[in-house]
Design brief:
This protein has 237 residues and is α/β, with parallel strands linked by helices. The chain contains ten helices and seven strands. It has a domain of 165 residues: Vaccinia Virus protein VP39 (Rossmann fold). It binds S-adenosylmethionine.
Amino acid sequence: MLNRVLLEQTLAPFGVAADGAAFARLDTYAELLTETNRQFNLTAITEPDAMTVKHFADCLSLFGFVDFPEHAKVIDVGTGAGFPGLVLKLYRPDLQVTFLDSTKKKLGFIESVLSAVGLQGETVHLRAEEAGNKPQYREQFDFATARAVSDLQHLAEYCLPFVKKNGLFLSMKSVAADEEIQSANRALHLLGGKIEQDKQFLLVENMPRRLLFVRKISQTPSKYPRPSAKIAKNPLK
Ligand code: SAM
């Protein structure tokens, strides 16, 4: 289902390679994604080569930039059909990945993939701004990841509460959004975060990507995250 040669070629510049066992797990995921997508919508990207590059290589490229310590705790916020969280878990089964989404069906799909490959992970069916106020999730993670969930101002309030002090929030963007980053700077500061690295690169030709590393430098004040309606109406600025 995945195009192995294309995956290898796309990831080579990042110094990332999937061994046979990791590739087999990722391929099972791709197969189940294609099959399940016929019953309910999980992704608009269904053509095998496009899926290989835009979903799988895109998420695996993270390993070229981020050194995830063994057994690190990761929460993937707004994971949807599992990007990037499930790709991270299938490539590095030692990672302790929590999958959070407000749509239950998508989490059910992730559970079925984990069970098909014999791995475990926690799924959380809550909005991020609710989960971020619960002690079992608040400031419990070494990393929070988010891809294609919201703009950085909102995302900061969704994601930073989950991150331990000195941990990282990794925001994966497809476009170079300078303005968005500018207007999120204060929000990041209020929430205890600071942009530490800003990696801009081409996944392949004409596919720009931007990966922001936001370091949690101080605890998030207890008034954040605010209720959904407030975040939507008054994003932090
Ligand atoms: N991260 C995946 C990807 O890159 O393919 C999914 C992206 S999809 C466009 C956005 C996902 O974020 C949806 O599954 C949606 O349910 C979830 N989402 C959006 N806002 C959320 C929130 N506040 N809390 C939890 N999940 C949220």
